[in-house]
Write a structure and sequence with these properties.
This protein is of the alpha/beta class. The protein has one domain (9-151): Sugar-phosphate isomerase, RpiB/LacA/LacB (Ribose 5-phosphate Isomerase B, Chain: A). Helices cover 48% and strands 16% of the residues. The protein has 7 helices and 5 strands. It has a 5-stranded parallel sheet, sandwiched between helices. The longest helix is centred in the first third of the chain and has 13 residues, at 21-33. The relative contact order is 0.18. The model has no long low-confidence stretch (mean pLDDT 95).
Length: 152
């Protein structure tokens, strides 16, 4: 993973259902190798589990301050992001490419990246994660919109 200097030292939470566990584990390992600290909220195997449980676990980790940023993985990234977004502390963005990941951070101050293990390859997921973690929120005109998300 490139940009390891800006990734080193970051604390990132990960959670996935059974469809996303292999991609979660691969991405988490790459972050560890780049010097990031990883919180693994599960799941830890391929036995069938319910994605809302892991989206909710991520939401709690963000809301209680254990992590400022997170990564969710399920088959499509959709269901698990819906579950996490039920918590007002979470701004989970399901991203399919690096443009999505960059704009989710720049314009929406997304704090959780959601990925689909069945809809993208590991290289695209890795690139999305790198961009997500190394892109800053622009603030400015975007801040009032993000504030409305929090106040909703």
């Amino acid at each position: 993973m490139t940009n390891s200097q800006s990734i080193a030292g970051q604390l990132v939470a990960f959670a996935a259902d059974h469809a996303g566990v292999a991609l979660k584990d691969a991405l988490a390992q790459e972050l560890r190798e780049a010097g990031a600290e990883v919180i693994d909220l599960g799941t830890h195997g391929e036995d069938s589990v319910d994605y809302p449980d892991y989206g909710t676990a991520m939401a709690h980790a963000i809301a209680d301050g254990r992590a400022a940023l997170g990564v969710l993985v399920c088959g499509t990234g959709i269901g698990i992001s819906i579950a996490a977004n039920r918590n007002p502390a979470v701004r989970a963005a399901r991203c399919a490419n690096t443009t999505d990941a960059r704009l989710a951070r720049q314009h929406n101050d997304a704090n959780v990246l959601a990925l689909g293990a069945r809809t993208m390859g590991v290289e695209v997921a890795r690139d999305c994660l790198r961009v997500f973690l190394t892109t800053a929120f622009e603030g400015g005109r975007h801040q009032r919109r993000v504030d409305k998300l929090t106040d909703a």
